[in-house]
Amino acid sequence: MSDTDTSTPAAETAKTAEASKESAAKDIPVPSLGAGIEEEREYVRALYHRLDELREEKEAQLTQVRSSGAVGTMQNVSERDAFATLYEDRLAQLNAVDDRLVFGRLDLDTEETRYIGRIGLTTESRQRLMIDWRAPEAGVFYQATAFDRQGVRRRRHLLLKRREVQGLEDEVLDAALLQETQENHGDGALLAALTARRTGQMGDIVATIQAEQDRIIRADRSGVLVVQGGPGTGKTAVALHRAAYLLYAHRERLKSAGVLIVGPNATFMSYVERVLPSLGETGVVMSSLADLYPGVRGVEESDPRVAEIKGRLIWREIIADAVAHRKRSIAGPRTVMVEGAEVTVTPKMIKRGLERARATGKPYNEARATFVKVVVKEIAEKLERQLQKSSAGNDADRSYLVEDVRTSRDVRVLLNLCWLPRTPQNLLEDLFSKPGYLADVAPSLSEQERALLRREPGSPFTLADVPLLDEAAELLGDLDETAGREEARQKAMREKDLENAKKAVENATAQLEEMGIEGFLNADDVVALNTESGPALTAAERAGVDRTWTYGHIVVDEAQELSPMQWHVLFRRCPLKSFTAVGDIAQGSSPSAAASWQEALEPFAADRLRIEELTVNYRTPRIIVDLAERVAAANGLDTTSLRTVREGEHEPVIEQVEESELVTATTEAVTAEQKRLGEGLVAAIVPERLIGAVREDLIATFGKRVGRGAGSMTQDVVALTAEEAKGLEFDAVVLTEPAELLDEARGRIGSLYVALTRPTHALRVVASRELPAGFR
Ligand SMILES: Nc1ncnc2c1ncn2[C@@H]1O[C@H](COP(=O)(O)OP(=O)(O)OP(=O)(O)O)[C@@H](O)[C@H]1O
């Protein structure tokens, strides 16, 4: 296809007919039911050939569109940018799905064969080569069982390494077929995935999604879906695949509104960041709870009591009162100087301004603009009357007076005294550094609680401050009253440009489809991608920097940790209340962690709550889960007993050492695990107090192989606190001084339970103190 093709419609039709005759002859033969690995390899090569072809086409189109001022029917720069964005997006998607492009094959009762892969692919002549895993026709690949075949005779897993088929795994569901074909047995695709070495970066599970997970992934978008599941049951994996599924099934709506994925911290976000791109989806916003307020990264709140207080919903009222508190009239008349003239401002004049501003119903800073306008006008009129009087009725034009009043220093001071312009940051800073102010607006907090909140001005904002900043921003509104107008003007201009772009894309849609790949952006998507902020920013990028952006869906991981205020902020960002929240009530360790999902979500979505449960642990072997469950039970934590996929080969090892040896013993334990595994990722989970020393000691032994947080491919040793280990997993874990981890969490067993369930293969405990109950 060429954007500059000027052939007549008749000539075009003739050409297309010829082309499809030619390509029909080139239909790619689908390997038969009895096909072995060589035939499958050939087919997979054909799939990659098609992928490469599409990629080349896209690259050529992109080069062409970039190098030309205006192409074909495109009339302006905006159109060109829209096309460039479209091609770049598609190219990024085609590149992202290269690794293990295809993973499944279905043979059906109808004799139809379907290949299942990361995206849908068709030839130019519309032969369907591969189906997107999210398409309805692919659903049976995950759902069919021997008891409920759903028309499936055989499910075949194609095990690829990069582009190469390395093996086949067959599950024959139709008994009659067992006689006819030779089954390919192996380790099992699922087991192979589960025992594979960890890299420090989460991978997708698209090839081996299990039926109970698939049902959740494809569940209806509306309402709040809570997925409760013990450690390692695939909650994070399911949440991310669900985001990809929803983007596929509701592309129109979600591509422009965006999907937000929220996780507990930056380490976790970088652990999961590659999953969605590997599924061909890039249009999501990922944010940790600390980053939800643009421009601020909340630091850890060091006192859990403070975090708990700041998590309460009463802050909606406290902040509303704090905002209202800074509006007041004056006690008596005040004289101000305007360009050498004295004017007396009366409380009545101020009151009229306050009332008019209040009547606008706008947020604080925006209503202040009305207040300023009204009072300035009142003063100017009074001044004019005075001048008229003193110049004996001289009716000269005195329209300049308004500007004189506005710029008078006295007037500005007076206006600020009555109605101070505020930012969320300075409002919070005042609340926490001025005890009198807090006492006035937060009578519901005890004196002791207020004392705990006290801090010096200039202290960094914390994780627990983030929702309070957001609440304040909502009530304060935009500080710069002119910003909105300029934005509106630019928006109108862009809308006009984009209407043209949309027309151009529509013209080309038919041709785009012929490129043979499903799920292309349509004209609306292109417009949506470009509206308001120009072609350089995608919807996701714009949403990420805009606090007031409302999303089409929000996914929350480790949702049990959220405080009521954090939920409050998230619900504001999705007025549709379309949520997927995954977590484990038993793993709760934050001071605001909820005791039940109902309790956590009732204030926001009582009638829209659905709870699903995942019950199989895919990560941790039985022998380690047994220990974790024993420790949990002995410490009064109520966990549902998990089924596990693997028994495990390595019994947990417990070493008792002297206090002074803790650090070196940790390094030795890491070394021992490294040796035992041969290759893989080993984590030392240690108390906060020891993290620095352990890291240093590990670096002395392992050098650059040591990383903190989610390691990259080259880092195979990491040292973290229990809090940081949340949601992550490692081939082996060395757990240092569990009794201290329990102290750190003020006796809450949740984070120790989390630490014990991180390994995929082995666990070693190093302790100097007495072990918490349940370890022996
Ligand atoms: N169907 C599956 N196929 C292959 N691997 C899977 C499957 N389901 C889960 N896993 C793997 O199991 C591990 C645990 O999954 P995940 O991290 O999503 O669990 P989780 O429930 O979020 O755990 P936690 O609550 O302990 O953080 C991951 O390595 C994931 O890739």
UniProtKB/TrEMBL annotation:
InterPro entries per the UniProt record, alphabetical: DNA_helicase_UvrD/REP, P-loop_NTPase, UvrD-like_ATP-bd
Pfam families: UvrD-helicase
Region (Disordered): 1-32
Keywords assigned: ATP-binding, Coiled coil, Helicase, Hydrolase, Nucleotide-binding
UvrD-like helicase ATP-binding domain segment(s): 208-621
Keyword Coiled coil recorded: yes
Stretches of the chain forming a coiled coil according to its record: 37-64, 491-518
Biased composition (Low complexity): 7-17
Residues binding ATP: 229-236
Name of the protein in question: AAA family ATPase
Species this chain originates from: Nesterenkonia flava
Taxonomy of the source species: Bacteria, Bacillati, Actinomycetota, Actinomycetes, Micrococcales
